[in-house]
Amino acid sequence: MERRKFLKGAALGAGAAALATPAVSASHAKEMTIVSTWPRDFPGLGISAQRLAARIEELSNGAIKVNYFAAGERVGAFDSFDEVASGNSQAYIAADYYWVGKHPAFAYFTSVPFGMTTVEWNAWIKFGGGQALWDEVSGEFGLKALACGATGTQAGGWFNKEIESPEDLKGLKMRIPGLGGNVMSKLGVSTVSLPGGQIYENLVSGAIDATEWVGPYNDYFMKFYEAAKYYYTGGMHEPGGGLAFGMNKSWYEGLSDWEKAVIEAACNEEHAAQFEETVALNGEYLTKLVDEQGVQVRAFNDDVWDAMGEAAAEVFEETRAHSDLATKVDDDFQAKLREYGSAMAAFEVTYVNQRNRVLGITE
């Protein structure tokens, strides 16, 4: 008897859940066009963007009909911002530091030099007031952004020569966007910001001498090793953070609470999935780069790190001078970074260092 009651209750619960999803015919589905800064089927970043687009439609049970366009299919990668701000498309998937020319504070919502790791950035965005600041910056351009992906601490980059001192950076031509690019410029590097799909051809042709991209899993498929054999571990420029699902604010505000919840749930899911996928695969692909392609892994020495740190301090001062809003974002970010970093050092960093020492785990 009790079992029958339970099954009846479960059936009613399932029915209520089904009713929570609006019954929408294909002709009445809400159309959503998403443009991306990544090429189609691009390993890592591109596949993640496609997965998110498909998931929004799936979670909505077809109530939101998604039309996804990779970089160059509807607009160029770096035209995505204006495409969505104008309302021609409803959303973009990108790294918001691509838009520092619009406002330098956008960098904080991807990653900044000597900034937060992904887990620290997540804490800031979700529980430390970061989302409200992101809304304020994006709102000035008619946008609403959510975190939708993360790749962890990124590699210092690919170079066609070893970097043994700050002087070795002078005169290099390097692809590196965001505030990290500003830091490298102060060290004598000639920097450019190229979409992912254009980096390989510029590196192989010699138009650039170095590039940063993501990390071993994503980088393996880019074949940068054909032109640059020196691969540097964790860099200062992008220690962590997230990617952006930037929506046209007017369009977003016209959504129902249920539609907003569907999009937020899909973004949260993919934000975690992309980070976890990267962590799961970086070790395997670093081994492939070394064993199969003869890549030489290096780490920047303290002299280089110190020079980068001094340049970063200048960049932050220049960023703050841009506007009151830039100062407001930097103040909050730096305060939370020190708060989170102190606890991370006491617990996670202490544990990982000691675990690796005891188990003999090396780089």
Explain this structure.
By secondary structure, the protein is α/β, with parallel strands linked by helices. The chain has a domain at 155-238 and 297-333: Periplasmic binding protein-like II (D-Maltodextrin-Binding Protein, domain 2, 3-Layer(aba) Sandwich), CATH 3.40.190. The protein is built from twelve helices and eleven strands. The chain has a six-stranded mixed β-sheet, covered by helices on one side. It has a five-stranded mixed β-sheet with strand order 2-1-3-10-4. α2 (45-59) runs antiparallel to α10 (257-293), α4 (118-127) crosses α5 (130-139) and α5 (130-139) packs across α12 (324-359). The radius of gyration is 22 Å and the shape is globular. It starts with a helix and ends with a helix. Mean pLDDT is 93; it is low at 1-19.
